[in-house]
Amino acid sequence: MGKDMDVLIMARRFTIITLFAAIFAFSFSAAVNRNAGGGAQSHFGANYTCTDRFSPTCTALN
Predict the structure, then answer these.
(1) Does the structure show a pLDDT above 80 at 23?
(2) Fewest C-beta in 10 Å: which of 4, 9, 15, 40?
(3) How far is CA 13 from the centre of its chain?
(4) Distance between CA 42 and CA 33 in Å, rounded?
(5) CA 31, 37, 39, 44 torsion: positive or negative?
(6) Contacts of 48 (CB under 8 A, 6+ apart)
């Protein structure tokens, strides 16, 4: 019976650690998403459609 209890304890610990990791991931993604609004173009390698093609901040190849 001791081996069965060890497996249950390990499963419980793994579940608790996984729940804490999920809570951290959700809160971290919410914080990153909230602070990512607007600002400079930060997606490297992405094509952007610029409203003013001759602007020095326009990096798209149109």
Answers:
(1) yes
(2) 40
(3) 25
(4) 13
(5) positive
(6) 41, 58, 59, 60
